[in-house]
What we know:
Blueprint: H1 2-16, E1 43-49, E2 68-70, E3 77-84, E4 91-98, E5 101-108, E6 123-134, E7 137-150, E8 158-159, E9 163-169, E10 177-180, E11 183-184, E12 194-198, E13 205-207, E14 213-216, E15 227-236, H2 237-243, E16 250-259, E17 267-272, E18 276-277, E19 284-291, E20 301-308, E21 315-319, E22 325-330, E23 343-351, E24 358-365, E25 367-368, E26 376-377, E27 381-387, E28 395-398, E29 401-402, E30 412-418, E31 425-427, E32 433-436, E33 447-456, E34 465-475, E35 483-484, E36 488-494, E37 502-505, E38 508-509, E39 519-523, E40 531-533, E41 539-542, E42 554-563, E43 571-581, E44 589-590, E45 592-600, E46 608-611, E47 614-615, E48 624-629, E49 636-638, E50 644-647, E51 658-666, E52 675-682, E53 693-696, H3 699-713, H4 719-722, E54 738-740, E55 746-749, E56 757-760, E57 762-764, E58 774-780, E59 787-789, E60 795-798, E61 809-818, E62 825-835, E63 843-844, E64 848-854, E65 862-865, E66 868-869, E67 880-884, E68 891-893, E69 899-902, E70 913-921, E71 927-937, E72 945-946, E73 950-956, E74 964-967, E75 970-971, E76 981-984, ...
Parallel strand pairs: 1-7, 9-16, 18-25, 27-34, 36-43, 45-52, 55-62, 64-71, 73-80, 82-89, 91-98, 100-107, 109-116
Antiparallel strand pairs: 2-5, 3-6, 4-5, 6-7, 8-11, 10-14, 12-15, 13-14, 15-16, 17-19, 19-22, 20-23, 21-22, 23-24, 26-29, 28-32, 30-33, 31-32, 33-34, 35-38, 37-41, 39-42, 40-41, 42-43, 44-47, 45-53, 46-50, 48-51, 49-50, 51-52, 54-57, 56-60, 58-61, 59-60, 61-62, 63-66, 65-69, 67-70, 68-69, 70-71, ...
Amino acid sequence: MASARALLVLAAAALCGAGGPGPPAAPPPAPAAPPALRFPAELYNVSIPENSPPRTYAAQPPGAEPLGLRLPTPDARVRFRIRHGDKDKFFKAEERVVGDFCFLSIRTRAGHSDVLNRERRDSYRLEVRATVQLGGRQVELDTTVAVEVSDENDLSPLFYPTEYEALVPEDAQLHSSIARVSAEDADLGINGEIYYSLAENTDRFAVHPTSGVITVTRTLSVTESAKHELTVLARDRASLLTRGEDAPAARASLVVRVIQANLHAPELHVRRLPEVIENSTAEIYAIVEVTDRDSGEHGRIAGLEIVDGDPDGHFRVRPSKQPTEYDIIVHALLDRESAPRGYNLTLRATDAGQPPRSSYLTLPVMLTDVNDNAPVFSREVYEASIPETAPPNTPVIRLKVSDRDEGANARVYIEIVGGNEGGEFFVNPETGVLYTSVVLDAEEKSLYTLTVSAIDHGNAGTRKQSSAKVKIAIVDANDNDPVFERDNVEVTVAENGPTGAVVARVIARDADSGENAYISYSIANLQPVPFDVDHFSGAVRTTRLLDYESMRREYILRIRASDWGLPFRRQAEMRLTIRLEDINDNRPQFERVDCVGYMPRRLSIGYEIVTLSAIDFDSGDVVSYRIIGGNEDNCFSLDSGTGVLSLSCDLTDVRSETRVLNVTATDGTHFADATSLTLHLVSGGGGETSGLECRDTGVARRLTELLAAAERSNAPIDFADDFPLAPSRYGENLHSPEFIDFPVEVKVNESVALGTSLVRLQAKDRDLGYNGLLVYAISGGDADSAFRIDPDTGELKIIGYLDRERESEYYLNVTVYDLGKPRRSSSRLLPVTVLDVNDNAPKFEKTLASYRVTENAINGTSIFRANATDRDGGEFGKVTYSLSGGGDGEFCVDRESGVVSVCASLDRERRALYELTIRATDGGGLSAEALVRVAVDDVNDNAPRFALSAYNARVREDVPAGTLVAVLEAFDPDLGAGGVVTYTLPDQAADDLVFTVDSTSGTLRTARRLDFEERQVYGVTVRATDGGRPALWAEATLIVEVLDVDENAHAPVFADRLALAAAVREDAAPGARVLAAAAADADAPGRDSRLAYYIVAGSGMAHFSIDDAGVIRTLTPLDRETTPHYWLTVCAQDHGLVPRHTCVQVYIEVEDVNDMAPWPERAAYAAALSEHCAAGTRVAQVRALDADAARAPAPLRYSIVAGNPDGLFSIDERTGEIVTTGRALDREAAAAHALEVRAWDGALGGTARVLVALQDINDHAPAFTQRFYDVRVPVPAHLQDDEAADEAAEGEESSSEGDAESDDDEERLAWDLWDDPAPSGIYITTVTALDSDAGANGTVRYSGRARGAARGLLRVHARSGRVYAAPRLPLAPHRTFDLAIRACDGGVPARCAVARARVRGAAAGGRGAPRLRAPPPLQAAELDAPGFLLALLQATDPDGDALYYDIVDGDPRHQFALGREDGSLVLARRLLWEEQPRYALNVSVTDGTNVVHSVVSSSSY
């Protein structure tokens, strides 16, 4: 345990403190500039004991940040001085240098007359300045040192006050606090901790050793002693440890005065009336007698009051004439309805004792009801509606009435007392449901206002009533037919009236209301008539022009009026006779017009020339004729009535040759169109005229047709065909309704919810329309108003709660009515059986009972018999009994009979009262409960019993004698003397008392001082004995653990207070001994002086260890070049109860060994040179460092050890500078050189890599892969035939042309640089020129120069080298064209190369298409040079034709070249994976006629 605490302390020190003055634990990555000069902390804490002699050094907390400065250079000098905070000049600052750290020490001055006193001043805050000499400059730094003056035990405790007094009632609880004494000691820690003890040995009181609280340990009694005097001692713990009981003590006196207590509460006894009638004037309800067993003032009753149960203050307590009695009076009228359950008055009686005691009593007050409340309707005005088609006995509304009274006073009888003079309604007086009693007629009366009255069933003379209004709106039904004002109407209408003219207006009315009274009109004629009626106004209008001559002259219309009622419309019809009146609306018309004839001049006067005929279609019109022109000489006469034209003059005297007469006809109103008679007068001839030739107008024919049509239109009418059935077409109401599938019986559970549908009754009626429309009603058998049938659907629903126990079966008389006139109906009896549900719980005769039984009653003893009944029937009414609350089966109940018996042994001490719950359960699971209280009488049969068999307590070894250790209480549940317990210590010898126990309270105290080193644990047996005969006893064991007190007075001390120093070689093996950092402890031999060592911080924690002897050893290999020294914080800790520890800083210097090879400043160097540079050109300089910390570092030598086989470079062995030797550097042979340079100190060496990149110069010209290209171009067959003739004619010319151009002429021609981004033409081939240079020096551009006929038509693309021919180039077999191709690089100046290409036509292939199998995926490296062969594509042709290859897609940057005829795929440029990692080349193969394609995949890496 001590070692674990030590680890915790050291861990805390490691967390709170710094890691030593050195660098952090992690090694620095590389040597850096000296750190900034500063104190690591702004504030330091140190402590020094008060009363310290001169030259006593202040100590820092163990593991704290070292106080001082880290020196930036070895030659730095530091001085410390105290600037502020030491007004009394108690302290002095000193410096000490260890390694690279200068420690600051604070000590007391010598020769000072005063000493440090913590009680006077416990801390100082010193401002310390450090002056640092750094070469030629001086730096000043400030920090703060907080000096704490630690305490020494130089003061004794002191009571204030020294006298105490306490008043304690004699009924004070055991171990309750009665007083608290307090002493103070100005010292700190254990020096100031105080122990309290009592100077006298007493069993009645105890004092807590640390808090000073005085407690009662034995019951006090005024009769035994009313005053107790105690003396309390106070001693500090440090004195007790060093001097024991001889330690000086402070004293205080305590006087305890015992005061008499109020031990008993008042007792109440009541005499009361059984009940109170509400509103009665009875004054005294109960008399309460109050007594108190105490004497004197404690036994006097201070008063009785009502504290609960009377919120309205209806009751009051009044002292009676008897001194111990009080009257409970009623001083206000009581209202049962305000308190239906009566009152439960809580009475409290209080005595006059101090403190007062109270007793409570609950006094029930039951109120008897009187009829003082009238029934109240739920609403003052009820509103309901019912259709007028509702049959009798239809429920209208349920009237709800409540009465706050109870019993018969609350039962209400409801009746209709006004507004029902015709007996249209009746009300069920029990249920309040209002029914119709007759068939209602909304047209006769649409609103009823009934006055209903509710009368309770109170005694005669006390009955009360109230009334309400019920407004019943009769909802109209469509039960009335429309009625016309007149059933027959005759009108006369003139023909030719305008279309839409009103000829008549009919009006019908409907006695119904709403939509049932809305009327629309229609014409019921089946045959079309030229009339229409407005649906809403009843206006009859013509629909077309009426013509008397051609149409019917009398129309008989059936006008039908229909209402808008539902579900059927009601309608009526009337007869409207319309007669047409003829008017003169036709002009006469001639049968023949425009007559021409020859008439001799010799005709005699009076000769009848012609008879004119005109027809008038009007009936009865007379036509007359007249001459209107051409008869100025009256030579002709025209009979106006007959139309005969005769001669009235001598024609021989007439000079004209032709006479033209214009005649017309009139009916007296209208004139016919004039017609002409042209008469040519001739000489000679006979005595008669030749026949006149006239144009027939067809009037006669039309007249005949008109007469025929008029005859047809006016033919007699068959009314059966022209008119539909009258509204009475549904016939009379001949049939009565008939039920369909009428149920034999309906069964329903009595728990069914309101609104539940039981059955839908169905009926039919063979009549139609309203004669067949049915409504349903319950005409009898529902005295409880529990059912309602929907009048329209026949659905039977529950509207009232069913109760099988009230009514188990109903016979409903269900009647169905039709809505015909007269009504017909049918009735059937519907039995409704109410099925029992378990809705009644069992009921006990008595729900509360009390009994007594002794605890030694034998099993089977009967106590009482429970009796419960259930109103339900069958299994639901069968009651079984069960019991709960019977403990562990001490009581049981017979399931069938309900007899409660003792079924197990009883024990009053375990349970003195049982509250048994008897549950009666019926067959459906409903239950009721009754409470039975069974009190168990006591038998003395128990020994005292401790709560535990063993107890534990802890006590410090230095507590004073008489200190309370524990309280052991035993309980004896027996009553009387058998329950009084006495405590003893049976196992403790009288001559060696360590503990004592109070015989009455069980309080255990120390009898003397304890010593942990002598004994750590005590087992004390405590016996509890009761006062029975014989006495019974029990024992318990108390394990008292003596707690060790810290006696560790001294901390370990190292040989050097500030720091230890040591050195170790860097090649020392792990485990090598470095230093013995042993510490000494001034405590006595034992655990307080046994030490353990730990390294808790510092940069060397991972590299060093320390053993139990304080020897520091290496853990890991050391390296001075990485870390030249280490700091450790080493702590020594003893094994005391409260361990003390001390820490010291340990400086370990690592001594150098030559173990570091020279290390170049950089791992790799990079340089760039132009190829072919001159000798001695500087490349780079390699520098290396030797990390060994030797005083005289060894000289380094440099050499090139690899990467220079050809001697292209040399290095200066002293400076490491690399230059060229003058041998040729060719980038194309090697673009870069990797040199490995070694730096050597004579024993060890290190290497660095020098990468030399050669920069390109334009020292290579492009080189064509072929100097001469012989290219064949396939020519299609049709071009071969066309060009064959041209070849014969132009062969000579082409040849001569070509021969005529000399080489000199060709050289004078300019090169054609064609750089079209989208070249076009006939692809010929691809030429490739390679240039080993890089960048622009290696970028090739092509230009061409064609000769002869190919000039301007044969061109090479500048970027890709693809040769194209213009379409008009005359390619043909056996015809050639020459093209000179130049390739130039991008250098300055440019280098060029020239190649020649001969292009000739070749015959195209046959019909068979070539086949090309795609090669497997190809791979090319970034290092592959241009010209590298990737694959050789080989296609086959079934005809054996020559094949030609080309890349048509997938190579936008022209990085591949494909042999036109051999299919060789080569690199045209170097590939870069970063630019494009994969390629998919679309390669075509053609024989000149057929072309196939294939994809060649390639990837770069």
